[in-house]
């Protein structure tokens, strides 16, 4: 006579799902949920929120919340330098800043909004993030003092080093 | 021993005599926990890194995540956007694999003009190896149903930095894993508790810890860490981007700086080899700076994309020697010399993906120094 345990196993065997079928234990995400979580910004600007800012407002935010780590006007020290270095990439000591190295301005918005300031990430308003981006880009001579950064203008900026990257491939 | 021993404890710790076997770490100015903690490779043997000594690299400290509140969202170019809690993930079929994890910036100091006088931990300690257990990424992606236009995914962490990287779908489908366990126990917070992405053989930065979101996209998102960082500046004005695989590498962990040879005689030269392309097939060792080589024994099991221990007996005669190791993998890739790598990438232009042959010089007094040879 079969033991109860063997019977239980045999019973379980009967309900094994077909191989191709997953356990399907995920819950369908609602559009609202996705909108709350999906803060990443593509290089085409997809995902940029409403809001806007200019370099002048950005200068004030930067001085208060960024300069302690990135230096006055993004000159660097103790942490990453953000301004200058254009023309240095082929020299002996490449200076990689937002202006000289970063290929997309959208990355700046994405990163500042998600990760900065380092001890208070995600604390800046969208207007403040646009303004800080405007300030850093203005200090790099990429946009003018009165240029408005927003969801439309930011992705249109052609960064100086846009063409500076080659995709790695093992085949030499 | 006649003295009665100590009582049981709930979670065991190493002997008090092993206190020096610890990670060393540095944090960015003005922060705690933003930076890297390094594995003491020169004080360990075998191939599996104990969980408390696994290297860590964090960009905004280590988040304290309640697993009951953590969610993983899969969305973007999918038929059905899905949310998973830990209770759901725990019910999925699991699999285990042993894989090394290496920071893209490991050994970056060796790009510098002069050899830094540091030990194996400080120079190379951003590589570790563990048995990871979790869910095949394809299982979850298939349930969400990827649109054929979706060729990349964005993986995002729940840390304050919202660490994010783009990964080609092909890699996710090949051997990507949603890892929940590390060496048999739940992931350590510093290694992504409760959920991390595992991409065996690829640079550690992509294997996003505290994974909260996977977004299927047409192209790469061009995040900060795949543009301004983790790119390799070449001589001239171009930089290599999307340098994903860790190429064949090896280091001698003993003898190594700090482990002074006390007298001439027998020593085992032992070290670690690894490659993101597959299995290590051969490690050659030199004691004369690369003039002559002998093939080391590889400790079984030799697993693909896992640390592989090599060993070779050596009799030190008491004279100067320069110890080197050179790995070959089953794709035919041979670890380059430092000079070959520098010829390709220049001096101090980047810190990423250094895998040139490292050299330890043994002096007549038995002291060991890091040199370029």
Overview of the molecule:
The complex is a heterodimer of chains A (172) and B (373). Chain A is 34% helix and 5% strand. With 172 residues, chain A is mostly helical. Chain A has a domain at 51-163: Cytochrome Bc1 Complex, Chain D, domain 2 (Orthogonal Bundle), CATH 1.10.760. Chain A has a two-stranded antiparallel ribbon with strand order 2-3. The longest helix of chain A is centred in the C-terminal third of the chain and has 14 residues, at 126-139. The radius of gyration of chain A is 25 Å and the shape is globular. Chain B has 373 residues and is mainly β. Chain B has two domains: 71-220, Alpha-Beta Complex (Sulfite Oxidase, Chain A, domain 2); 249-371, Immunoglobulin-like. Chain B is 9% helix and 34% strand. Chain B has a five-stranded mixed β-sheet with strand order 5-4-13-8-9. In chain B, strands 6, 7, 10, 11 and 12 form a five-stranded antiparallel β-sheet that branches. Chain B has a five-stranded antiparallel β-sheet with strand order 19-18-22-23-24, with no helix packed on it. The model of chain B has no long low-confidence stretch (mean pLDDT 97). Classes of the chains: A mainly alpha (172), B mainly beta (373). Chains A and B meet through strand 1, helix 2, helix 5 and strand 4 of A and strand 4, strand 5, helix 3, strand 13 and strand 14 of B. Strand 1 (27-28) of chain A pairs antiparallel with strand 5 (82-85) of chain B, so a sheet runs across the interface.
């Amino acid at each position: 006579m079969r033991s109860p345990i063997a019977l239980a196993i045999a019973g379980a065997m009967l309900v094994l799902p077909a191989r191709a079928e997953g356990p399907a234990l995920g819950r369908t995400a609602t559009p609202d949920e996705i909108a709350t979580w999906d803060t990443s910004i593509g290089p085409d600007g997809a995902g940029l929120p409403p809001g806007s800012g200019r370099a002048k407002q950005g200068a004030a935010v930067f001085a208060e919340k960024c300069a302690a780590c990135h230096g006055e006007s993004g000159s660097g020290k103790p942490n990453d330098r953000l301004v200058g270095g254009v023309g240095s990439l082929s020299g002996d000591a490449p200076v990689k800043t937002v202006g000289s190295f970063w290929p997309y301005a959208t990355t700046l918005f994405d990163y500042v909004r998600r990760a900065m300031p380092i001890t208070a990430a995600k604390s800046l308003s969208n207007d403040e993030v646009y303004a800080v981006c405007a300030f850093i880009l203005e200090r790099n001579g990429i946009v003018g003092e009165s240029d408005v950064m927003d969801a439309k203008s930011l992705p249109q900026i052609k960064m100086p080093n846009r063409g500076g990257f080659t995709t790695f491939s093992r085949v030499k | 021993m006649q003295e009665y021993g100590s009582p049981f404890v709930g979670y065991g710790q190493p002997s008090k005599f092993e206190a020096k076997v610890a990670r060393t770490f540095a944090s960015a100015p003005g922060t705690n926990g933003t930076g890297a903690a390094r594995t003491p490779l020169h004080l360990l043997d075998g191939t599996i890194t104990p969980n408390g000594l696994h290297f860590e690299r964090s960009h905004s400290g280590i988040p304290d995540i309640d697993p009951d509140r953590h969610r993983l969202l899969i969305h973007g170019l999918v038929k059905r956007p899905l949310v998973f809690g830990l209770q759901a993930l725990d019910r999925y079929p699991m699999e285990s694999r042993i894989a090394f994890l290496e920071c893209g910036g490991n050994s970056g100091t060796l790009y510098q003009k002069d050899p830094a006088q540091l030990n194996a931990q400080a120079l190379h300690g951003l590589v570790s190896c563990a048995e990871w257990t979790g869910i095949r990424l394809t299982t979850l992606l298939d349930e969400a149903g990827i649109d054929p236009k979706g060729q990349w995914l964005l993986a995002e962490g729940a840390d304050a930095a919202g660490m994010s990287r783009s990964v080609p779908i092909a890699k996710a489908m090949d051997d990507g894993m949603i890892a929940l366990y590390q060496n048999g126990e739940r992931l350590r917070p510093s290694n992504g508790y409760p959920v991390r992405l595992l991409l065996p053989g690829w640079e550690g930065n992509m294997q996003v810890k505290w994974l909260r979101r996977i977004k299927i996209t047409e192209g790469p998102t061009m995040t900060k860490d795949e543009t301004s960082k983790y790119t390799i500046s070449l001589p001239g004005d171009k930089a290599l981007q999307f340098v994903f695989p860790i190429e064949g590498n090896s280091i001698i962990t003993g003898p190594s700086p700090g482990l002074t040879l006390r007298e001439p005689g027998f020593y085992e030269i032992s070290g670690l080899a690894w490659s993101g392309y597959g299995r290590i097939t051969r490690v050659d060792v030199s004691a004369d700076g690369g003039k002559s080589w002998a093939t080391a024994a590889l400790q079984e099991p030799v697993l693909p994309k896992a640390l592989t221990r090599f060993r070779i007996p050596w009799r030190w005669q008491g004279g100067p020697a320069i110890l080197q190791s050179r790995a070959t993998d089953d794709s035919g890739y041979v670890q380059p010399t430092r000079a070959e790598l520098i010829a390709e990438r220049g001096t101090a232009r980047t810190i990423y993906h250094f895998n040139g042959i490292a050299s330890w010089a043994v002096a007549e007094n038995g002291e060991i120094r890091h040199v370029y040879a």
